[in-house]
Design a protein that fits this description.
The complex is a heterodimer of chains A (294) and B (317). Chain A has 294 residues and is of the alpha/beta class. In chain A, 47% of the residues lie in helices and 10% in strands. Classes of the chains: A alpha/beta (294), B alpha+beta (317). At the A-B interface, helix 2, helix 3 and helix 8 of A face helix 6, helix 9, helix 10, helix 11 and helix 12 of B.
């Protein structure tokens, strides 16, 4: 069977600020034999802001991303849930309405492009849980994380709106829980796992964003989690980078390390903490990994 | 089949039961039975002191919104059997983000106050001529007319969870119903007001409102349309609009999100200075975003051609 191959869309954040998410994804994909093909032309999906700015422009710019993947002959794999939601929503709107697709193609034509509506957009999380398979993933684990209690943080955009995403049930998601278990770790259950990290308003209403981040972290921690894992770099920005601010705002110590999904998988596959960029986190995971890994 | 209903109760007026507690009731359920049917059965046969709101029993009046197995839904439009099959249990709690008056009855006054804030009626221009409303005009305001004001969206809203002053999705969906109406004479004034603090730009885009609305109103879509309309009107002197405009400029310039430029353009010079200590902390871990000057995507000319085509269309519109 040919290897699983995707047009790889890391998203803007993971090309710089959360570079460790993309670097570790490439390493994990290589270790699992998943082929990721770069998309050198791909533009930003708009992160929801372009949807507000101009809906037609948003559709056309996302169709440009799909056109590149279509020309490559692959589905898109992204490691960002916001990119996933934004692209999937555009894809839903284009595929479900031929007139709209035609209108968008008339705009794309000005750029010499065309999208025929064949591409699927997938989250790395779904690639692991569905395309690659949990049993196969379990078979690749060399360092089971059986001493670790992990809070799965799905965030919003890998779950809702489910009519555009449609892999996990937003009321009862399981893919991230199942991946955590496949790595040998315990998945902690808590109410906030399907809620919002606050990222979208970081620069708009920082107070709401920071309080929200802190509330989610304290929720998972109170249920016994040693650490968090998220499939989204924007959730990571808030849960990790903003954790210090949340501690100040809520006047309490939180101190919970947060992993990108690929980093947690990488640890179980035996990749070194340096290779997967753990030193780039603001909240050090050293304390919980201790001698088990380091 | 007997199912145990675990219902969160509390009576703030009573000394004995003012702290919330969970009471279990075994209910004989049959196929097709709704949560509301079961609650009525409990009140009739076991415990008349159990309080909850209800009226039409057919998802029209919006009275019976509550938390069913963790999510805000209408008791009359949710069946017991599929719930038990999915969750293995029945946990009923009051609507979140609202103060409990007794058991499953919450105080809806803040909900109505938010709605009043958006002036929930048409205000045509003084002396306006008769306006013909075409089917496509109605389509523009679309589902925002279908709201039954049950409060499920506000119950699920994550921004409201953190900030009780936030205007919240129900009122915003209603606001679009009037802003988008061809007969409305004060759309600009409405959009100005909605752009204030705790207004439409505070939505965190968690998509809960759209996901859990029992009538398919899609408040997030209404929020997006309101924001678009405000920017089109040139109401951009606030962090939310500046953020969106900065994104549009960044993608046009380099094809990507330029985090440093976005921060600067959204917050302005002085507030950006305040971010420096945080930025330095980030830089210790190699994470401080630097302005993208030469980091264009390949074939950026295609992106600009798309912008041009859309701008020309908009100009014509």
């Amino acid at each position: 069977m040919p290897p699983l191959t995707y047009a790889y869309y890391p998203g803007c954040a993971s090309q710089h600020m959360t570079k460790e998410a993309s670097d570790s994804t490439r390493l994990v994909a290589k270790a699992l034999g998943i082929v990721l093909r770069d998309m050198p032309k791909a533009n930003c999906c708009g992160a929801g802001l372009l949807t507000d700015y101009d809906y037609e422009l948003y559709l056309a710019l996302n169709a440009r991303i799909f056109a590149e993947a279509e020309a490559m002959g692959h589905d898109i794999m992204t490691i960002c849930s916001t990119c996933l939601m934004v692209m999937s929503t555009a894809n839903r709107d284009l595929k479900s309405d031929p007139a709209r697709l035609e209108k968008t193609n008339a705009i794309l034509k000005k750029a010499g492009l065309h999208y025929s509506g064949k591409v699927k957009v997938k989250q790395f999380l779904w690639v692991l849980a569905e395309d690659y398979g949990l049993e196969e993933l379990k078979g690749e684990v060399v360092k089971p994380l059986d001493w670790l209690k992990v809070a799965p943080f799905y965030g919003c955009h890998s779950l809702r709106p489910s009519d555009a995403l449609g892999v996990d049930d937003p009321m009862k998601p399981s893919s991230l829980d199942e991946v955590i278990k496949a790595l040998g770790a315990e998945a902690v259950n808590y109410k906030g796992k399907t809620k919002c990290c606050g990222f979208q308003v970081d620069l708009v209403t920082e107070d709401t964003a920071v309080r929200m981040t802190g509330t989610r972290l304290l929720d998972g921690k109170s249920k016994g989690a040693d650490c968090f894992v998220t499939p989204c770099p924007f959730c990571h920005v808030n849960l990790d980078n903003y954790q210090g601010m949340a501690e100040k705002k809520l006047s309490t110590k939180i101190d919970v390390p947060v992993f990108h999904l690929a980093q947690l998988v990488g640890l179980a596959l035996g990749l070194s903490p340096d290779a997967i960029g753990l030193s780039r986190h603001l909240v050090s995971p050293e304390k919980i990994l201790g001698e088990k890994i380091l | 089949m007997k199912i145990k209903f675990r219902i969160k109760r509390c009576d703030p007026m009573s000394r004995e039961t003012c702290e919330p507690f969970v009471q279990g009731y075994d209910v004989e359920v049959t196929e097709g039975m709704t949560i509301l049917d079961a609650l009525l059965k409990i009140a009739d046969e076991q415990d008349p002191s159990l309080s909850f709101r209800k009226s039409c029993r057919s998802a029209i009046c919006g009275s019976c919104a509550m938390t069913i197995n963790g999510f805000s839904r209408l008791a009359c439009a949710t069946q017991v059997m599929p719930e038990v099959k999915k969750f293995g249990e029945m946990e009923i709690e009051p609507l979140p983000n609202h103060t409990v008056l007794k058991d499953l009855v919450v105080d809806m006054n803040p909900f109505w106050e938010k709605l009043e804030k958006i002036t929930p009626y048409l205000t045509p221009k003084e002396g306006a001529e008769k306006v013909c409303v075409l089917p496509e005009d109605l389509e523009a305001i679309g589902k925002s007319q279908q709201c039954i004001m049950c409060g499920c969206c506000n119950g699920e809203c994550n921004a409201l969870e953190i900030d009780k002053r936030y205007i919240a999705p129900a009122a915003l969906a209603k606001a679009w119903r009037f802003v988008g109406d061809v007969r409305e004479g004060n759309a600009r004034r409405r959009l100005d007001k909605l752009s204030d603090e705790h207004g439409m730009w505070d939505c965190v885009r968690c998509v809960h409102c759209t996901q859990y609305c029992p009538k398919g109103v899609a408040p997030l879509k209404a929020i997006e349309l309101l924001r678009s309309a405000a920017m089109k009107e040139g109401i951009t002197d606030n962090h939310g609009a500046k953020h969106a405009v900065a994104m549009a400029e960044s993608v046009k310039r380099v094809g990507r999100l330029d985090e440093a430029a976005m921060t600067f353009k959204t917050l302005g010079f002085l507030k950006s200075l305040g971010m420096i200590p945080f930025g330095l902390k980030m830089e210790l871990h190699g994470k401080m975003p630097l302005p993208l000057v030469f980091a264009q995507i390949n074939d950026i000319a295609e992106v600009r051609a798309i912008y041009e085509a859309c701008e020309r269309k908009k100009g014509k519109g």
